[in-house]
Amino acid sequence: MTAREILSPGKTVAERNPLRMVEADMPLLEVLPRLLDTPMREIGVSDGEVSIGVIDQASMLEGIGKMIAARDDCSTITVECRPEEYSASLLAHAVEDSDAHLVDLITTPQEDGKMQITLRVRHSDPSAAVRSLERYEFHVVDAHGNEDGSRDAAIAAERLLALQTLLNV
After folding, report:
1. What does the pLDDT look like over 109-159, one tens digit per residue?
2. Sign (positive/negative) of CA torsion 98, 104, 110, 113?
3. 10-16: which pairs have CB atoms within 8 A and are 24 or more residues apart?
4. H/E element holding 140?
5. Torsion (CA) 66, 70, 76, 81 in degrees, nearest 10
6. 115-122 sheet: strands from edge to edge
7. Which pTM was predicted?
């Protein structure tokens, strides 16, 4: 997603007079730190020599929200490691070894020099993926499952018992 795709509706550069400008084809994740550095939390967008609009906090938040796929069946796992130990492909492999799919992977540098990696895993219970990540020697800091997943599992178990009962009749 680029700056051109998240322009704030109804705002023009002329009426806002932003202090900073970015190019229209700049990736959203590169625009974000520049937006946060501006005092008014607004940044102008230009396409070559032509100013085409303004990005404000609301339009940035909406753009980032569109980048994150909404999934009700996902768990969130947080892993820490040193930068030289980081491998996105190895993390994905560890998750897939637990018969789960990696939906998102977001890295964040920490003040102590380590990296914190947040994984969204398409599985309502993260325990299998946590065990697999630990087998791959990743340090799991936190894991949250989908609370509705346990309810869904109970409903599925009840349905399976009902089906077995019908088959035994």
Report:
1. 888 999 999 998 988 889 999 999 999 999 999 998 876 555 556 666 666
2. positive
3. 11/42, 11/53, 11/54, 11/56, 12/51, 12/53, 12/54, 13/44, 13/45, 13/51, 13/52, 13/53, 13/54, 14/51, 16/40, 16/42, 16/44, 16/54
4. strand 139-144
5. -30
6. 101-109, 115-122, 75-81, 139-144
7. 0.57
